[in-house]
Specification:
With 208 residues, the chain is mainly β. The chain has one domain: FomD-like (FomD barrel-like fold), CATH 2.40.380. Helix content is 13%, strand content 42%. It has helices spanning 147-155, 161-179, and strands at 11-17, 23-34, 38-43, 48-54, 73-79, 84-90, 95-101, 107-121, 124-137, 141-145. A hairpin with a 3-residue loop joins strand 2 (23-34) and strand 3 (38-43).
Length: 208
Amino acid sequence: MTEHHWAPGQTVVERFLRPDGSIGQHHPLRVISDDGQSLLGWLPVGTPIVGSQLADGRTLREAPLEQRFRIPRVTVPDVWHGSSTLRLIPENAWSSVWWFFEPDGRFRDWYVNLELPCGRTETGPDRIDGVLDLVVTPGAGWQWKDEDEAAAAVDAGRLTTEQLDRLREEGERVGGRAERGLFPFDGTHTDFRPDPGWAAPALPAGLV
């Protein structure tokens, strides 16, 4: 059991580390539940985060694929946009599962963020983004996402071939659970609604 354990209602910060150990993004999460091994946290749309962009000022998506993992990145103030997410982050798994909710509260789909687990600190879980991901659509199965980016990340030395193989294995494992309708793809939490009185989770001061 990990020594770091958080109570419902607390705010923790999920940090995405770079392979060199520096910190890329910070995402604040309101703790829904945590047993010391599996954290369930809420990140609503509009929440301030620490994001990242290329050092030349471009966003990742603005750069050609062959440049995205070769140009240094810097942290920048940002806001979580698009969809609110409920995240299940198992301590030692090479993935976390995100429930995406539309602005009106309707559940849309699941996003399986493939990741390298890096343990916990007293302030939250640390992960390295694995670039390759899965999207699981209710009633329509699952599909890989960002396979081209993952290949470019390996070419640039951002991921090793062995890490990508492990991430693919994890994706196949989680995708298999989705195919069989097993937790967390069994309808659990798809009716989640945050307490309307909750404030958005806040970042600690002074991060950027």
